Amino acid sequence: MPSELVTITDPRSPAAEAYRALRTNLEFAGLERPIRTLLVTSPGPEGGKSAVLANLAVVLAQAGKRIIVADCDLRHPRQHEIFGLANSAGLTTVLRDDAPFSSLPLADAGVAGLSVLTSGPVPPNPAELLSLPRLAEVVSSLSERADMVLFDAPPVVVVTDAAILAARVDGVLLAINARGTKRDHALRAKELLEKVNARLLGAVLNNVEFDASLRRYYAS
């Protein structure tokens, strides 16, 4: 497994434990309004959103849930690389094809309960493709097959794709890089999501320097 999947390669690490804490926080956030569809984006390309989403998907599946990862970053898709999957068919082929949704090209991620709908070939018109009415049907079909669907979206400040998707899901997480994301970009991302009435559940702060004094506890 790629090193980005710390929840698999180093499940006792502080980072893996942080993802399990995030899983618990999401469970509490969904007590009153269930979260069946979740979008993960970032202000800019440095946010680390794809790795955050992939590791969150793993710990959710490890808790016994049926999880689908859908790579909607049609500009720089990463989920097929993170999970080591082919990307000859995926979301773009589904959106362009009139085939029934019973034949969605879901791939086994190598984790029990976890499937991935890769992006498919990168299109010349990502925003237009994501604006098609068929996308709502894809979201609905995926939701019927899983306890939760996680959508990987492009950076919200850079392109409009994430805002289009945010209006279609139950909740949004914003991935913030502690050593790379600028404060004004994070605030701008929040504003853009609020404009489309997205349900912003919170932010995930990654690439944080670990307190060495805690290392002995996690290593025991």
- What's the mean pLDDT score? 90
Q: In CATH terms, what is the architecture?
A: 3-Layer(aba) Sandwich
- Structural class comes to alpha/beta
Strand portion = 15-25%
Largest sheet: 7 strands, mixed
Strand order in the sheet with the most strands: 3-4-2-5-1-6-7
How would the global form be characterised? globular
Span of the ends, CA to CA:
24 Å
CATH topology tier name? Rossmann fold
Helix content, binned percent? 25-40%
What is the domain total for the residues? 1
Q: Rg, please?
A: 17 Å
State the total count of DSSP E strands: 7
CATH superfamily: P-loop containing nucleotide triphosphate hydrolases
Count helical runs.
10
The top-level CATH class is Alpha Beta
Detail the poorly predicted runs: none
Give the SSE string. HHEHEHHEEHHEHEHEH
Structural summary, described in words:
There is one protein chain. The protein has 220 residues and is α/β, with parallel strands linked by helices. The protein has one domain: P-loop containing nucleotide triphosphate hydrolases (Rossmann fold, 3-Layer(aba) Sandwich). It contains ten helices and seven strands. It has helices spanning 6-9, 14-29, 49-62, 79-83, 91-96, 126-130, 134-145, 161-166, 183-195, 215-219; strands at 37-41, 67-71, 107-108, 114-117, 148-152, 171-177, 200-206. It has a seven-stranded mixed β-sheet with strand order 3-4-2-5-1-6-7, with helices on both faces. β6, α9 and β7 form a beta-alpha-beta unit. The longest helix has 16 residues, at 14-29.
